[in-house]
Amino acid sequence: MSDPEFLEGAPVALGGPRGLEVTRTLPSKHRRMVGAWCFLDAYGPHRLAGSPGMRVGPHPHIGLQTVSWLVAGEILHRDSLGHRQEIRPGQLNLMTAGRGISHSEETPARHGDVLQGVQLWVALPEADRAVPPAFAHHADLPVLTDGGLTATVLMGELAGAASPARCHTPLLGAEVTLAAGCRATLPLRPDFEYAALVVDGAAAVADVPVKPGPLLYLGEGRAELRLEAGPDTRLMLLGGAPFTERIVMWWNFVGRDHEEIVAARQGWENRAAGGPFGTVRGYDGPDIPAPPMPITRLVARGRTR
């Protein structure tokens, strides 16, 4: 069992220089993945008075699943399959890009005063990364309670509670809330690697003090996880079997080599002529253009740097 390590986040403007600011902890400088989780943005709480909130225009994805989870507020999802779905706290939006999809995300016209949540990506394994695109909304997820602990299982299984969301690799994603002063222990799988992100409050996670901001990487080999809250606390627990495939992750694409990324970018830039990404209808703004390709070739890399 390895010692826990902090993965510090970087500020990013979502959707462009004037976009909503998020903190990105995956991929990090030293670690790209936790299980198949390859991307993690946390945002808020943002006060929306006088602000448009989230405005992320249509953009493409391949080779991954997007996992949208809210703590406060509302987001309206539209995609090229024709889905239009609002998501609220306690609900899961799961989009499987597979061989290609595009979508937009925005704060709806009628909304609350605060927006807070996380956006995650799951890399699809070789056997499934070209599946047909799909979208699912799960409003009813399993919830575990134990004294002052409540755990909602977004993806995978925890302590016998299994999410209905479809996973393509052994995986866990859960939101855990702890009442002030709560002490609890969660069972873990020793063959998984895990990480925890405190969203609100402060807690000792595996005896390590954690506050909102960095992602605490817990490694493999743990059969249980000790948690102790200071104030009321909310955290995200991520885990999964170590993802052994090497991937290329560039912009909104997860592929396996440089040529695949080039082809995906061209498909998005030439979408007027057709292609795998389709059209998002109903968003009242421009599509997001692909950035220029880097001057050097993209190289597939493993889960650590």
Description of the structure:
By secondary structure, this protein is mainly beta. It has one domain: Jelly Rolls (Sandwich), CATH 2.60.120.10. Strands 1, 13, 14, 15, 16, 18, 21 and 23 form an eight-stranded antiparallel β-sheet that branches. Strand 14 and strand 15 form a beta hairpin. The radius of gyration is 19 Å and the shape is globular. The mean pLDDT is 95.
Layout: helices, strands, pairs:
Elements: E1 5-7, E2 10-14, E3 20-26, E4 37-47, E5 55-61, E6 64-72, E7 75-79, E8 84-87, E9 92-96, E10 101-106, E11 114-123, E12 134-138, E13 143-146, E14 149-158, E15 161-162, E16 171-178, E17 183-187, E18 193-200, E19 203-205, E20 208-210, E21 215-220, E22 224-229, E23 233-240, E24 248-250, E25 253-255, H1 258-269
Antiparallel strand pairs: 1-21, 2-3, 3-4, 4-11, 5-10, 6-9, 6-11, 7-8, 7-10, 9-12, 13-14, 14-15, 14-16, 16-23, 17-22, 18-21, 18-23, 19-20, 19-22, 24-25
Enumerate how many helices there are, as a single number: 1
> How many domain units?
1
For the largest beta-sheet, the strand count, sense and barrel status come to: 8 strands, antiparallel
Shape: globular
Per CATH, the superfamily is Jelly Rolls
CATH topology: Jelly Rolls
CATH architecture: Sandwich
Order of helices and strands: EEEEEEEEEEEEEEEEEEEEEEEEEH
Mean pLDDT: 95
Strand content: over 45%
Percent helix:
under 10%
Return the CATH class. Mainly Beta
- SS-based class: mainly beta
Low-confidence stretches: none
Mind telling me the C-alpha Rg? 19 Å
- Straight-line distance between termini: 20 Å
The counted number of beta strands is: 25
